[in-house]
Every structure is written in C-alpha cells, then in structure tokens.
C-alpha cells in the first residue's frame, strides 16, 4: 500500500473521531469526549495502530489557527477594547494565582523553583479550542460574558508568548551561573532577561501596528477583489490563504503565536461586508481540524499516570478545576459583574490545552522540568477537558442562586434579551438575513405585526431599523423561543440556512403550539424531508422556486405580463 503517515493520521483520526463522537452523542454526552477517546485509541499507550504524534500536532495547530480566525471574524477591535478593563487585570491575576499554586505543588513534590514555575504557568492557561467550542455551542461569543472570556483568552495567549521567549532565557541564565546573565542573540549582540522581555513586547506592538496600518487596508481589498472575480473556489482559497498566511507571518516575523496572528487577521476582516461569507466558507475546515486537535490531545494521554501518581494528579486537577475557577470567579465578581457572568468565565477557564503542552515540552527539552511534570500536565489537560462540559451543566443549574449577593446584581450590559413578548397574533421570523429581511418587508407591507429572533449584530440592527419587535438570542434555545409567545403567534417563518438548527426550532415550536403554521427554508430534498419530519408545515427549497419562476416566463402570457 502506498500511503504515508499523513494519510494514516487523517483517515484513522477522522474515522475514529466520528465513531466515538457518534457514540458520545448517543449517550447524551459531549462529542468532545469521543474525539479524545479516539486519540487515546490511536496513541502510543494503547495497543494497535499508533499514529504519528508530530503530524497530529501540526494538523491540530491548523485547527487552532482556523478557529481563532473564525472568532476574529465575529469579534471587532471595539469588542476587544470594551472588555480590556476586566480582561487584562483579570487574566494576569488569574495566571499569577494558578502559577503560584503550581509552584507550591512542584516544591511539595521535591522540584526546584524553576520547575515549579514552568509547571504553574502550564496550568494557568486555558485551551483556545475548548474555550471557544464551549462558547460557540452555547451561543455565548457575542454576549458580555463571551466577550470577556475571549478577551481574557487573548491576554493569556500574549502572556504565554512572553513565557515561551523567557523560559529559554531563564534556562540559559541558570546554566550561565547567575540570573540575568547576558543571552546571545543571532551571534551578534547580547540581551539580558529584561532585554529579551522588552524585545518581545516590541515585536507584539509592531505586529499589532502592522495589522492596524497595513493589514486593515490590504486584507479587505484582497477579498473584495477576489469576490468580484465571481469564483467561489478562489474566494474560499483566499480566505484560507489569508488566515494561514497571516498566522505564519505573525509567528515567523514578529514572534507571536499562530493563534494570535489568525485572530487579528479575522478581526481586521470583520470590518468588511464579506466577513460573514468568509466565516461560512472556512467553517467546514475549521470543524474538521478542530476535531483533529482533540484527537492529538488524546494521543498524549498515558493512562498509567493514574496508577503511578494518583495524589499529585488529583492535586493538579484541583488547581485546574478549583484553584483557577475560584480565582476567576472572585476576580470577575470583584469587577462588579453578575454571578452568571463570573461562573461562566470560571467554567470556561477550568481546563488547559495547547500552550500547556508547548510549555511542558519546552521545559523537558531544556531540562528544567522533570518528565513527571509533563505527564501530570498532559493528564490534567485530558481530564479537565473531559470534565469541562460537566462544569457548564453545573453553571446552567446553579448560576442563578449560588453566591449571589442580596438585591439586584450589577451588570454593565444585558447578556441576552429574553423578556417575553406581549404581542398577540404576530408573525415570528427566525433569522433576519437576506431571506428573513425580505420576508419581513413583505409582511410589513401587508400590515402584519413582526417579531424577529436574531443574534447577529448586523441583522439585529437591520431588524431594529425596520421597526420589528426583537428578541436577541438563538432560537434553538428553549428560553428564547418560549419568549416569542408562539402559543399566540399567527405563523412562524424559519429563515436561517442551517437545517439542523432549523430542525431543532421546528421541534420545539411544534411542542409549544401543535397548530402553528411553520414555514422553513431548505437547500436540498434531504433537508426538506428532515424539516418536514421535525414539524414544518411547508418547506421552501430555493432552487426549486427559482426553477418555477424561470419556467413561468415560458408561458404564452408571460411576455404580455412582463410588458
């Protein structure tokens, strides 16, 4: 057979991830658990096929790049600056607390202070993929708590970029017999520890300035030019080239992380009207490579650590799940945010991932972190990722009554508007994009009362401008749909293009009002059948309606009517 390790890891990783993910979904647990178990199955610590770990890590890095690019597409510079007052000091304080706890555990295990410091840093930073996946699954990215979590994540990434530069400097300084010893740079001049720190900060500032001055003009211009060629294939290629190219440039020329570079590329492109289309075109690859990330993490897990060092592993998990979470909760509450926001941030950060693995590998390669530390970090990452969905379930259950101060909770902005509507005999439109806005305009012209359910900022603004009543949120959320007053509604139009999400809306709406006429949209016969099974009264397939309109022009009276 003429196949190499790349084909093997792609086939084995994706196929097993599908099998285990489907089983996890069937058992009503997060598919992430299935993806991790798929990685354990193809890892070096279980019998049978062993995938190439190096290739798996590189494929996973692509997933991180594409995911951060997608987040940037929905996250403007204004959003980032709006949460800087809490994200910057909060992230730095939480990193400090977790690092000190890790340092204490390292000293208790007999390591020196440098090993404990590296160990603590590795436990302080959350996984980009896990955090963003959790927020996206719960439609929280555009809420206040979602913006704080993403801003917090960016600060953590910047801190880890500095750490990755300073750790080799510390190792060299220790080998040179005195802290602060000069560190050779490119064989031409020397820098001390403070010099290395200053140079790294200068590179980050230079990258941000480059993106704001040059990237802000070049990136949107490239996509606009490609869009005018009319080639969807070329547009999709341009999106991927920009995401990966900017990420690689950021790492190669400016020394910042791939993830941070991709995030800024997406955030710059957010200002373009083509950002939504760019997000849609990159979504399939983002999902596929994100799955490979979890497979690569599973490959690192050695189940033997559970027997070799159970107590240190429990202590490591306690730092990740309890120490970090408690610190984050106290910090967010100290800034006057609500208990729900604080608990959501705490649950989001209660895991570790990509940077933790990089720090662990770097520490071992420089002989400043014992191999036991790396094993504890990897095991802590696996177990914390497995347990993270459970924490979100607990947050959903207890966020309203645990730790809340008496009286009203302070909030700087509403997280989601789910106040029940008082309308009666109204038309409900789910999604106010190109299709939904046209439906809304037609209904308004007929004198109907409109209620729009939407979560995208641009569509929300359009619905407000058109004078429609509005519920901001995702219609697949039962609380959002319940607030729409479907029992009193005249008709429901589901104008979103995602058939799976539309099916969930159909099922819930049919339970709320068995007699409600529901009109949905589809792109294929299979989607029509799916939505009909879910309870849609009528499903419109765009291609079929276009064909009917074109055929109508062939009728004998068409020319006269057109004239």
Kindly summarize this structure in a few lines.
68% of the residues lie in helices and 6% in strands. It has 24 helices and 8 strands.
Salient structural properties:
2 domains, two-stranded antiparallel sheet, Rossmann fold, about 5% strand, Na+/H+ antiporter like fold, mainly alpha, about 575 residues, 8 strands, 6-stranded parallel beta sheet
What would you say this structure looks like, in words?
By secondary structure, this protein is mostly helical. The protein folds into two domains: 5-398, Na+/H+ antiporter like fold (Up-down Bundle), CATH 1.20.1530; 427-562, Rossmann fold (3-Layer(aba) Sandwich), CATH 3.40.50.720. It is 68% helix and 6% strand. The chain has 24 helices and eight strands. It has helices at residues 5-26, 31-41, 53-73, 77-82, 84-108, 113-124, 128-137, 144-175, 193-229, 232-254, 258-269, 275-299, 305-308, 310-334, 339-349, 354-365, 371-398, 434-445, 457-465, 478-483, 499-512, 525-534, 542-552, 558-562, and strands at 183-185, 189-191, 427-430, 450-454, 469-472, 491-494, 518-522, 538-541. The strands form two sheets. Strands 5-4-3-6-7-8 form a six-stranded parallel sheet, with helices on both faces. A two-stranded antiparallel sheet has the order 1-2. β7 (518-522), α22 (525-534) and β8 form a beta-alpha-beta unit. α3 (53-73) runs antiparallel to α12 (275-299). It is globular, with a radius of gyration of 26 Å.
């Amino acid at each position: 057979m003429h196949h190499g390790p790349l084909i093997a890891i792609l086939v084995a990783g994706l196929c097993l991830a599908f099998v285990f993910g489907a089983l996890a979904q069937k058992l009503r647990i997060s598919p992430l658990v299935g993806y991790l178990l798929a990685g354990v199955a193809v890892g070096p610590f279980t019998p049978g096929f062993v995938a190439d770990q190096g290739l798996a890590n590189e494929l996973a890095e692509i997933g991180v790049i594409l995911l951060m690019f997608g987040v940037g597409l929905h996250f403007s510079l204004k959003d980032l600056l709006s949460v800087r007052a809490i994200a910057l000091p909060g992230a730095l304080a939480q990193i400090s607390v977790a690092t000190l706890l890790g340092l204490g555990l390292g000293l208790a295990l007999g390591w020196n202070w440098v090993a404990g410091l590296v160990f603590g840093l590795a436990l302080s930073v959350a996984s980009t993929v896990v955090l963003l996946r959790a927020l996206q699954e719960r439609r929280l990215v555009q809420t206040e708590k979602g913006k704080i979590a993403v801003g917090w994540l960016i600060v953590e990434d910047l801190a880890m970029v500095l750490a990755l530069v300073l750790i080799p400097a510390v190792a060299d300084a220790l080998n040179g017999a005195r802290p602060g010893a000069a560190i050779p740079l490119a064989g031409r001049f020397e820098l001390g520890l403070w010099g290395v720190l200053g140079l790294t900060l200068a590179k980050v500032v230079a990258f941000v300035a480059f993106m704001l001055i040059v990237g802000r003009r070049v990136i949107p211009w490239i996509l606009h030019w490609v869009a005018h060629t009319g080639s969807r294939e070329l547009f999709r290629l341009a999106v991927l080239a920009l995401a990966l190219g900017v990420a690689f440039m950021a790492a190669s020329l400016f020394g910042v992380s791939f993830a941070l570079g991709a995030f800024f590329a997406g955030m710059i492109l957010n200002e373009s009207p083509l950002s939504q289309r760019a997000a849609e075109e990159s979504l399939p690859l983002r999902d596929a490579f994100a799955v490979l990330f979890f497979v690569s993490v599973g490959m690192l897990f050695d189940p033997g650590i559970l027997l070799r060092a159970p107590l240190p592993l429990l202590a490591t998990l306690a730092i990740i799940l309890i120490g970090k979470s408690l610190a984050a909760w106290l910090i967010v509450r100290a800034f006057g945010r609500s208990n729900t926001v604080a608990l959501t941030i705490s649950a989001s950060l209660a895991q570790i991932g990509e940077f933790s693995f990089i720090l662990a590998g770097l520490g071992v390669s420089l002989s400043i972190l014992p191999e036991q530390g790396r094993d504890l970090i990897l095991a802590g990452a696996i177990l914390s990722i497995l347990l993270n969905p459970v924490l979100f379930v607990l947050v959903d259950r207890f966020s309203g009554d645990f730790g809340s101060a008496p009286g009203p909770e302070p909030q700087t902005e509403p997280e989601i508007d789910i106040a029940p509507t008082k309308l009666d005999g109204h038309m409900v439109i789910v999604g106010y994009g190109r299709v939904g806005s046209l439906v809304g305009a037609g209904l308004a012209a007929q004198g109907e009362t409109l209620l729009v359910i939407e979560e995208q900022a641009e569509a929300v603004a359009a619905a407000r401008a058109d004078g429609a009543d509005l519920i901001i949120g995702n219609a697949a959320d039962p609380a959002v749909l319940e607030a729409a007053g479907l029992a009193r509604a005249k008709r429901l139009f589901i104008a979103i293009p995602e058939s799976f999400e539309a099916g969930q809306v159909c099922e819930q709406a049919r339970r709320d009002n068995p007699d409600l006429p529901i009109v949905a949209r589809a792109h294929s016969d299979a989607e029509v059948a799916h939505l009909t099974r879910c309870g849609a009264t009528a499903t419109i397939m765009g291609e079929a309606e276009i064909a009917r309109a074109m055929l109508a022009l062939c009728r004998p009276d068409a020319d006269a009517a057109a004239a």
